[in-house]
């Protein structure tokens, strides 16, 4: 009999539950011919979209030039690591749409003005949980 796999695929609902429980992740986007990866704080709305705010700058420019994005969150303990990745399309919300996001638990982590509300429409969501055996913890140095 073989050992069970240390990797478990999460259901879509498990992935969304983890996204709801977190508020910090990493956004990957294109800017010209480069891929950028930046930390953002976010919230999930009732339509299962990720929402965040940003200031004018390279992130907003990149999302305007190419809406394709990826986003990732993870967490780990001594025994397991979990990762959720989404792929989708980002767009800036219009004024009438922004009002719908006002009740989301979207809190800035730094005291900077962020007047642009962005939503990521999710095309694909995947998640995995890894059982950690950490074999190096069982290795003992040789004593002379």
Q: Could you provide a short overview of the structure?
A:
This protein has 144 residues and is an alpha+beta fold. The protein has a single domain, classed as Pnp Oxidase, Chain A (Roll), CATH 2.30.110.10.
How are the elements arranged and paired?
Elements: E1 7-9, H1 12-21, E2 24-31, E3 34-41, E4 43-44, E5 50-54, H2 58-65, E6 68-76, E7 80-92, H3 95-98, E8 116-131
Antiparallel strand pairs: 1-8, 2-3, 2-6, 4-5, 5-8, 6-7, 7-8
Keywords:
eight-stranded antiparallel β-sheet, alpha+beta, 8 strands
Question: Can you describe what's shown?
Answer:
A hairpin with a 5-residue loop joins strand 4 (43-44) and strand 5. The chain has helices spanning 12-21, 58-65, 95-98, and strands spanning 7-9, 24-31, 34-41, 43-44, 50-54, 68-76, 80-92, 116-131. It contains three helices and eight strands; from the N terminus they run E-H-E-E-E-E-H-E-E-H-E. With 144 residues, it is α+β, with helices and mostly antiparallel strands. Strands 1, 2, 3, 4, 5, 6, 7 and 8 form an eight-stranded antiparallel sheet that branches. It has one domain (7-138): Pnp Oxidase, Chain A (Roll), CATH 2.30.110. It is 15% helix and 44% strand.
